[in-house]
Amino acid sequence: MGSSGFSWKLNDHPKLPKGKIIAVVVLDGWGEANPNQYNCIHVAETPAMDSLKKGAPEKWRLVKAHGKAVGLPTDDDMGNSEVGHNALGAGRIFAQGAKLVDLALASGKIYEGEGFKYIKESFETGTLHLIGLLSDGGVHSRLDQLQLLLKGASEHGAKRIRVHVLTDGRDVLDGTSIGFVETLENDLAKLREKGVDAQIASGGGRMQVTMDRYENDWDVVKRGWDAQVLGEAPHKFKSAVEAVKKLREAPNANDQYLPPFVIVDDNGKPVGPIVDGDAVVTFNFRADRMVMLAKALEYEDFDKFDRVRFPKIRYSGMLQYDGELKLPSHYLVSPPEIDRTSGEYLVHNGVRTFACSETVKFGHVTFFWNGNRSGYFKQEMEEYVEIPSDFGITFNVEPKMKALEIAEKARDAILSRKFDQVRVNLPNSDMVGHTGDIEATIVACKAADDAVKMILDTIEQVGGIYVVTADHGNAEDMVKRNKKGEPLLDKNGNIQILTSHTLQPVPVAIGGPGLAPGVRFREDVPDGGLANVAATVMNLHGFEAPADYESTLIEVVDN
Ligand SMILES: O=C(O)[C@H](O)COP(=O)(O)O
Ligand SMILES: [Mn+2]
Ligand SMILES: [Mn+2]
Question: Which subcellular locations apply to this protein (predicted)?
Fold first, then answer.
């Protein structure tokens, strides 16, 4: 025990043994909803997941995965991978980035912080650039926060502002970007009336431009860099509204994948490249899809692509995105302090851990799970394996993704008996659900179920335990609904496809031959959420959870 009295040592669970191999399976974007034709999980053949639900009612339940249960501002906020995996791994509910930024903006504290003071130094002679996702999805960013920041920055001295927009269509309906750009243009026009030189300078669809994650495809970040920093893009327009309208006319165009564009003046000159002496803020609060750009903006030594120019700027993130890398080093709002995660406790108590997913979700079961911290806690106790994702495609063309490969890695890790916990994220239902392709999402759900089966079979073989859950809903409802729950139609009478996550609860199932007799879900945690899973897993490893963790979902009854 250190001088502070803190100790990593967990108490033994009074009834549950140690030493069982536990598979922790997170199905990404797998919620529970009414069975109907837009519920791809229902339509798909999913015998493994069905048997968990039907097999043992005291070992299957639903938990909340959205809103306040995962630290989001309101219960109208759908869940997402960051907050979901944070809650699963940390066992407590932390006010998340969305909420912390709301508070900092409302109180005005954001303008008193180190990060804002730092960028403010550039306002006299330089331009303030704001780069981020333009929507009200609330997953990576929010339009109303951008609006407040624009107003606040101009009131605090920013004289020249350029916004570099990334269109969404993934956390919000496809086609909504035009409206968001129009709203922003209105705000900027009002700023101009007040004498602030404010304009949109560049843009592009989030999946084409800037917002790659976990270093899957640096070309995405390069395309953004070229437009935002160098002022170069294949498409040039006089206004962003015109840009989005025109680019959406191409066959199969959608908001997520719009190509990069720059806004030019009457002489064809880009209106807002980033140059020496400027300030830059990346206004997404969520980390995963901003870390790569943050590296490009901040690191002197950088070899991921040719930056051509590396302007001397003052850069602040909305938040600090990576607590281990301390990246970026300046930020407007302090991130949630997600400390003492279950993963860290467990390695300190001898639990050897294996974690695996494919690139696009790799950081979810490692970085997010560990409280937005990259790297190992104790390298000799842990192994994290990343299976390279396909890149340059939309996942509806390969809906099986790497589910089989992930399951095989989990199988091998379990059979090696080198690990006590084998944790995976199966990405299919989420990544394919985001494409809005219902047929492909059905294939995706089946592929994830096949992977679950392989892992459960392996657990059976070694006498282990499984915990199967999800981080939020997605594939279980693929249509936008009205308040009565009826599908909404567009003006041509077609249903409006829902590419985003949902507000639905997610399943948690426990079982396996290693599960002690008498273990079942408690009935006195009816409002349980994802944060209750960590204590549950600790119990199954034979430990009591720390006192301040959300309560366990299980009890052991004598039979
Ligand atoms: O980043 C994304 O792909 C979406 O905005 C959210 O999906 P995720 O939270 O499942 O990653
Ligand atoms: Mn997810
Ligand atoms: Mn998702």
Answer: Cytoplasm
What is the structure's pLDDT at 5?
84
* 132 close to 146: Cβ distance less than 8 angstroms: yes
pLDDT at 370: 97
Spatial separation of the C-alpha atoms in residues 559 and 549, rounded to whole Å? 28
pLDDT digits (tens, 9 = 90+) for 24-46: 999 999 999 999 999 999 999 99
Encode pLDDT of 286-323 as tens digits.
999 999 999 999 999 999 999 999 999 999 999 999 99
Give 34's strand partners.
none
d(C-alpha 178, C-alpha 370), whole Å: 37
Output the residue whose Cα is nearest ligand 1's atom 1: 289
Which two structure tokens, joined as six digits, stand for 300? 């002197």
Listed residues: CB within 5 A of ion ligand 3: 430
Q: Which residue(s) pair with 422 in the sheet?
A: 23, 354
Q: Please state the atom number of ligand 1 nearest to the C-alpha of residue 286.
A: 1
Please tell me the residue having the least CA distance from ligand 1 atom 11: 81
Instruction: Give the integer Cα–Cα distance in Å for 435 and 441.
Output: 8
